């Protein structure tokens, strides 16, 4: 496929999938329920952290977390209400209350010294770095460790930053940074959308390989770096919009393989 044809395909699919219909079936619906930035970013990261597996299960368990927090996330964090939970309570697959507590202790430490997570990122000037998501997670992990007796927790945020594609964090950042007013919320100012990365998971990786965008077999940091080269060439100001295109093409391809219905109506 010629570059011009590939760009046209990606632009068309991005426009088709990036629509309000996407919201109700996606974890982005949860941070969108709130107006206070601290509520939004807390729920965005929590919803993204558990975003692996079946989407219906992810949404079910994100609802569970909101119920636990009494639909008042920032207050729940600052009141340390999470400390009363049974650490062995299951929240999502291998994510337990102990992991939930670990993350919220770190968030409380950040919020005790910054107006928001966005302000924390701005104070570190992460948006000026080559890979803002990785720099942000490095800093957040340091805060999490300080709040949890020096321990890290890979079930909340990845620890091996040289190799991870940071799929879940890149998804949360897409929600928080992209500002086209359709699905993503565009509330953060610390990171320019031109420096966002596509959330690279198995399906997005497979679609990218089928289209010839990458050749690397592993869905790791090198692969997402490779993927962003052509995507930034196609749309330098907003490369992460192509996450919608790769998602949509992948869904369509899998539906056709299974003899199922078209994904044209899928948000």
Describe the structure.
With 267 residues, the chain is mostly helical. The protein has helices at 3-17, 37-49, 55-68, 73-78, 97-111, 117-123, 132-147, 167-177, 202-210, 221-234, 242-257; strands spanning 90-92, 95-96. The chain has a two-stranded antiparallel sheet. A hairpin with a 2-residue loop joins strand 1 and strand 2. Helix 2 runs antiparallel to helix 8 (167-177) and helix 9 crosses helix 11. The longest helix has 16 residues, at 132-147. It is globular and about 55 Å long. The two termini are 26 Å apart. Residues 261-267 have low confidence and may be disordered.
SSE blueprint:
Layout: H1 3-17, H2 37-49, H3 55-68, H4 73-78, E1 90-92, E2 95-96, H5 97-111, H6 117-123, H7 132-147, H8 167-177, H9 202-210, H10 221-234, H11 242-257
Antiparallel strand pairs: 1-2
Helix pairs in contact: 1-11, 2-8, 5-7, 9-11
Features:
single chain; mainly alpha; two-stranded antiparallel sheet; 2 strands; disordered C terminus
* Major sheet size, sense and barrel closure: 2 strands, antiparallel
Low-confidence stretches: 261-267
**Average pLDDT number:** 94
Q: Given the helix and strand composition, which structural class is it?
A: mainly alpha
Alpha-carbon distance between the two ends: 26 Å
What multimeric state do the chains show? single chain
CA-based shape: globular
Q: Give the fraction of residues assigned to helices.
A: 40-55%
Tally of helical segments: 11
Number of strands: 2
Q: Please state roughly what percent of the residues sit in beta strands, choosing from under 5%, 5-15%, 15-25%, 25-35%, 35-45% or over 45%.
A: under 5%
Main sheet strand line-up: 1-2
Topology order in helix (H) and strand (E) letters: HHHHEEHHHHHHH
């Amino acid at each position: 496929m010629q570059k011009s044809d590939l760009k046209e395909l990606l632009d068309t699919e991005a426009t088709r999938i990036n629509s309000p219909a996407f919201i109700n079936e996606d974890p982005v619906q949860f941070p969108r329920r709130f107006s206070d930035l601290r509520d939004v970013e807390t729920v965005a990261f929590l919803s993204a952290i558990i975003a692996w597996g079946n989407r219906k299960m992810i949404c079910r368990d994100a609802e569970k977390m909101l119920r636990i927090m009494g639909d008042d996330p920032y207050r729940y964090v600052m009141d340390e209400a999470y400390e009363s939970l049974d650490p062995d309570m299951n929240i999502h697959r291998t994510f337990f209350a102990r992991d939930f507590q670990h993350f919220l202790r770190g968030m409380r430490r950040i919020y005790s010294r910054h107006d928001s997570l966005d302000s924390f990122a701005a104070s570190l000037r992460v948006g000026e770095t080559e890979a803002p998501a990785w720099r942000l997670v490095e800093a957040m992990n340091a805060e999490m460790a300080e709040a949890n007796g020096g321990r890290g927790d890979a079930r909340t945020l990845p620890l091996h930053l040289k190799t991870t594609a940071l799929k879940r964090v890149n998804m949360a950042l897409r929600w928080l940074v992209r500002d086209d007013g359709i699905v993503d919320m565009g509330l953060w100012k610390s990171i320019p959308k031109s420096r966002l990365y596509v959330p690279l998971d198995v399906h997005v990786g497979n679609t990218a390989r089928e289209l010839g965008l990458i050749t690397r077999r592993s869905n790791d940091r090198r692969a997402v770096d490779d993927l962003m080269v052509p995507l930034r060439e196609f749309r330098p100001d907003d490369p992460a919009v192509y996450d919608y295109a790769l998602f949509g093409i992948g869904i369509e391809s899998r539906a056709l393989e299974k003899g199922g219905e078209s994904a044209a109506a899928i948000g």
